Amino acid sequence: KLDFRGELIGTRDEHLRRLTVKSGETFSRSKLGQDILRMTDWYKDQGYAYVDITPLTAIDSDARIVDLAFEVQKGHKVYFERINIRGNVKTRDKVIRRELKIAEGDLYNQTRLDFSKRRAMMLGFFEKVDISTKRGSSDEYVIVNVEVTERPTGTFQIGAGFSSVENFIAQAQISQNNLFGRGQTLALMAQLSSLRQLFSLRFVEPYFLDTPWTFAFNLYNTALVFDFFNRTATGGDLTWGYMLTDDVRLFLTYKLEDVSVSTRSTGVLLSGATSSPIGNTQVANLFRAGITSAVRASVAWDTRNDRMFPTKGMFHNISAEVADPATGSQNTYTRYSWFSRFYRPLVGPFVFKVNAEAGFITSRKPEGVPIFERYFIGGIMDVRGFRLRSLGPRILVPSSPDPNASLLQFNVGGNLQTILNAEIEFPIFEKVGIKGVVFFDAGNAWNTEGRYCGRVPGAPPPIILDKSQDPCVKFALDGLRTSVGFGFRWFSPIGPLRFEWGIPLKRLPGEDSIVFEFTIGSFF
């Protein structure tokens, strides 16, 4: 039998609904302890900070039955008198206070007190956040002390190295995630390698003029090297966001960039010359460069316990982007994107991490999606165990302007992509920031545009080793390419270094049995 006694704040049924212990089941001391904590927090959320709930048991040894009664002494209601912020040498008080879900004069609430601690940790500015309470000027008031231990939030990096993916790498970065202690982000970055050049300036104000609005801008100049072409772009974007709830934000971004595309000296005809039917139809969009003027709307839901080094929680983002003559754009497309990230601590220091992504881009122009906006999958940043950008649909293209030229396999990229990454991360030498990781990856890119199913007149069809390479297969689960692997990560003075070995499952002819990659930069 279950019963409740003393100073109750609700009916017996309301109390019973909060119990996991049920009449007739085997007695469990651990479940009883959890129920006491659950009811205690319920009373504390009503303002009874000093509630005392005592379990009383009457045991019938012969019948092997326990009668259980909860004795409740709720005391009087308590209010927050004062909130003290301590330990913040650099971070301003208001940056912490605006994350707290309690205020001076509010009725005591345990759930909001616990949530305030999580919100302060989510900033990523602190190694540790401790919240404690003590008696105020009378028994009806409590004083809240928020103790923080700050971590470095600024970096000045100049480094150079070698990567199996990008060969020589040089980078310089000045960044501050807590600019002048105001919670703002300012980052100036330059990166040079054989596959990319990047210069960018980024600024983020999460609480514009101390309101729920977010303001951010980004200026950049990039150059990316693909197998058959180079993409360069100069531009920027401007973002406004609004906090709907504590964990959900809406964003509206305007992007303006000037994109140019040039062929590489690969011997493949991509110039759109009249002598090549493929040049005029299937890959002519390689040279549809120009101005991209796009508007993107997105919503983000973030419950991670730490934005810089999360070990618990999740992060979801879904967006839609439109570049159209109506927005002043020469390049035309509509892109839909979604990703979800999950973090869960396992036994001891092991952390389980999952990243799932999907993207779809289409164009209402008959030429299709510009090649430089399509998806190229493979490599250390998405599906490990495969050479960089080696996965996806393939078509045949002429190798020279000669009408009798031989045909080559060309990875045209997909306008649909799916990616799944699952990892278990664990510390190896925690004091120097070295961690180990084991992972499973799956993903690929597919083509849904019929124009790439066309064949060159009189030419044989492409040699398709697997349906995952067929440009006429719009999507197939058995076309997902998968891999497993392991690696090491080091948060070094020049940035996060990643050393990872990927082993493809069900590899195709010409693919390596194991792919080692080393690069600078974090993953997810």
Question: What features would you describe in this structure?
Answer:
8% of the residues lie in helices and 48% in strands. The chain is mainly β. The chain has a 16-stranded antiparallel sheet with strand order 7-8-9-10-11-12-13-14-15-16-17-20-21-22-23-24, with no helix packed on it. Strands 1-3-2 form a 3-stranded mixed sheet. The protein has a 3-stranded mixed sheet with strand order 4-6-5. The longest helix has 17 residues, at 29-45. The radius of gyration is 29 Å and the shape is elongated. The two termini are 51 Å apart. Mean pLDDT is 86; it is low at 265-281.
Short description:
It is built from 5 helices and 24 strands. The chain has helices spanning 12-16, 29-45, 93-97, 110-122, 277-280, and strands at residues 2-6, 52-60, 65-73, 79-86, 126-135, 141-150, 154-163, 167-179, 184-193, 196-205, 213-225, 229-243, 248-263, 290-302, 313-323, 333-345, 351-362, 394-398, 407-411, 416-429, 434-446, 481-492, 495-505, 515-520.
